[in-house]
Design brief:
heterodimer, A: 2 domains, about 15% strand, B: about 270 residues, mainly alpha
């Protein structure tokens, strides 16, 4: 038995040694160097070839990390486990980060291509970044109604179709508290950032009344249900609507006249960014005509970069899904709701709605 | 009559079970040949997603990381786990029980708790990266190896080892030639168990990985926001077929293997 123990000890030591060697080998790889940027973005939200191109042009390496929701990004960012330099996230989350003093001013004097971003989008940004100091617009879109023209009488132009009972059993709503309450508030003529308890209560009652007419509350599948002809009307984002129209030309997308949510995803530089000059270089690179075009073709969401439209073939320039008229978004609002009490109330009412 | 009905029912039952298990995979395989990105529109038969897969460096890198991670973590935890099994087996009854309990906890623990705990612990002394995921995977793999090797250690005939030592074999030689072969069955199953566990894991990897490190599962998760690309269906189909082929080969092997094993054991005992 004594021999076995000695052997065991030897084996354990071998194991420890192998581990240490392995750590040594992979430890070097993760050490931070000055010419590396750690970028945090949504999944599939940047053409990987553009990252390669940037590294080739500038020698700055990119460590790229992806997430699915703004909340997830916030949690990972706040945990401090990884030191992110650049973050791309959504309107209300940007407001929260700015409020919490987590981002730093972007030095636009280092930019060459900043003016490629249209004034309209800087104005959108003002709802969460009043002086356009902290964020750079990246992609945007709207929330609206995707409908099957063969199943609907005439043209749809109002949220009313969701609530008047005409299409009972044919409606797909978003399975998300934010979107569902936003459109209902807009339908009732309130701001979608309302913190008024009575208004929120009214919206809840309207949704409760509508519930028997709703076929299902879905997220990604909403588009496919209309494409497949299982439903006539769905509340979807413009990017999804574009794909829906592509798969099934009978489908139309509309931003109702009462107005809707316009979302904006923007870049910001974190407070802890070690190399702000490189970070600015990266952001400026993303604004450059050729890069913005390639990136647009990869992602296919509406871009705030106005050179993209000019560089597209004429037949793509008139795509009303990608480049809607300014008039369409007139009544739209950016979501900047960060009030924790209101969010809690909305979540509570949403749960009650779903449970009812 | 009753017998017939019974057998009919049991067949029907098995059919339903198989249907439930395999119809999702069948749908996935069909979609991997769909020439449309939509899940509900059939755009005609194509193999272009398989071609696209070969050119997608992101997927290639993620696949490489997944296999490297699975192999390294399985191998390292095999060494540590086997050593641990030998050590625990030679302990006194009480400490033996205690150690086995301790090794069982990580297996029963929720992944998310293990993941967050490992992340919090690892960032105390190193930045998150490939190394941190590797440590995490080794950590959760060791109990599986111990569990697989332990029964072999318990039924191992230690006299063979002692006899070898008496007849002049050095401790190393005796260990590798007389002790290890007796454990090899458990070690192999432990290794493969650890390998699959590592390949399968999402939650722990998600919490312990650094920026820029992606396994297949974390990469696919990142795609959810914009919808999963058909390349992933193609990749999943290929992995499924690969596993199927390996299983078929393995299922046809044991007949030979067993005979060989018996002969060897016979020799040793004779």
């Amino acid at each position: 038995m004594y021999m076995i123990r000695k052997k065991t000890l030897a084996l354990i030591l071998t194991g420890i040694m192998i581990t240490i060697t392995a750590l040594g080998v992979f430890g070097c790889e993760v050490s931070d160097s000055a010419d590396t940027l750690t970028v945090f973005n949504y999944g599939e939200y940047l053409d990987p070839d553009m990252i390669k191109l940037f590294t080739k042009e500038t020698g700055i390496k990119i460590k790229y990390e992806e997430a699915t929701t703004p909340e997830e990004m916030y949690t990972k960012f706040k945990s401090g486990a990884i030191g992110y330099d650049l973050l791309c996230t959504s309107d209300y989350m940007l407001k929260r980060l700015i409020n919490e003093n987590e981002v730093r001013e972007i030095d636009y004097s280092l930019f060459q291509y900043k003016d490629n971003i249209g004034q309209k989008y800087w104005d959108f940004s003002k709802s969460f970044d009043p002086e356009n100091k902290y964020t750079l617009p990246y992609f945007w879109g709207t929330l609206g109604i995707l409908y099957d023209t063969t199943k609907v009488n005439g043209k749809i132009d109002s949220w009313d179709v969701l609530f008047n009972g005409e299409y009972a059993g044919q409606i797909i709503m978003q399975n998300a508290v934010r979107e569902t309450f936003q459109i209902t508030e807009k339908y009732l003529g309130y701001s979608l950032n309302t913190t008024d308890r009575d208004e929120i209560q009214k919206a809840y009652e309207t949704l409760l009344k509508q519930k028997p007419d709703v076929q299902a509350y879905l997220v990604d599948e909403a588009r496919d249900e209309v494409v497949a002809g299982n439903a006539a009307i769905a509340v979807v984002y413009s990017g999804e609507a574009y794909l829906g129209h592509k798969y099934n030309p009978d489908l139309e997308y509309v931003i109702p006249k009462e107005g809707s949510n316009v979302w904006l995803d923007s870049w910001c530089i974190t407070k802890n960014c070690k190399n702000t000059e490189a970070a600015c270089k990266f952001l400026d690179f993303l604004c450059r005509d050729d890069v913005a075009l390639k990136n647009f073709e990869f992602i296919y969401y509406s871009t705030p970069n106005e050179t993209v439209k000019e560089n597209l073939p004429p037949e793509d320039q008139n795509d009303k899904y990608m480049f809607p008229d300014d008039s369409v978004t007139e009544n739209c609002e950016v979501c900047t709701l960060t009030d924790p009490e209101t969010n809690e109330l909305l979540n509570k009412l949403w749960k009650e709605l779903k449970a009812n | 009559m009753v017998e017939k009905l019974k057998s009919l029912l049991s067949r029907f039952y098995i059919l339903i079970i198989i249907l439930f298990l395999y119809s999702p995979i069948a749908v996935l395989i069909i979609l991997s040949f769909n020439d449309s990105r939509s899940r509900v529109v059939w755009g005609g038969f194509t193999i272009r997603w398989y071609a696209a897969l070969l050119h997608n460096s992101q997927i290639r890198v993620a696949l490489g990381t997944t296999f490297l991670l699975a192999f390294l973590s399985a191998f390292i935890s095999l060494v540590i786990g086997t050593a641990a099994a030998l050590g625990i087996a030679s302990m006194k009854k009480r400490s033996h029980k205690l150690m086995m309990m301790i090794t069982n906890i990580p297996m029963l623990n929720a992944d998310i708790v293990t993941g967050i705990a490992l992340m919090l612990w690892i960032i105390q002394f190193m930045p998150l990266g490939f190394g941190s995921v590797l440590i995490a995977h080794i950590t959760f793999n060791i109990p599986y190896v111990i569990l697989a090797v332990m029964p072999k250690v318990k039924t191992m005939n230690i006299s063979i080892y002692n006899a070898g030592r008496d007849l002049g074999a050095g401790p190393l030689r005796a260990f590798f030639e007389l002790m290890l072969p007796q454990l090899s069955g458990g070690m192999i199953s432990g290794f493969f168990m650890a390998f699959t566990m590592s390949m399968d894991d999402f939650v722990i990897t998600y919490f312990t990985k650094g920026a820029g490190v992606n396994t297949l599962s974390t990469m696919i998760y990142g795609e959810i926001k914009k919808g999963i690309k058909p390349e992933i269906y193609a990749l999943s189909t290929m992995i499924f077929v690969l596993v199927l082929v390996i299983l078929m080969i393995m299922n046809n092997m044991p007949a030979k293997e067993k005979r060989k094993g018996e002969e060897e054991r016979g020799n040793v005992y004779d």
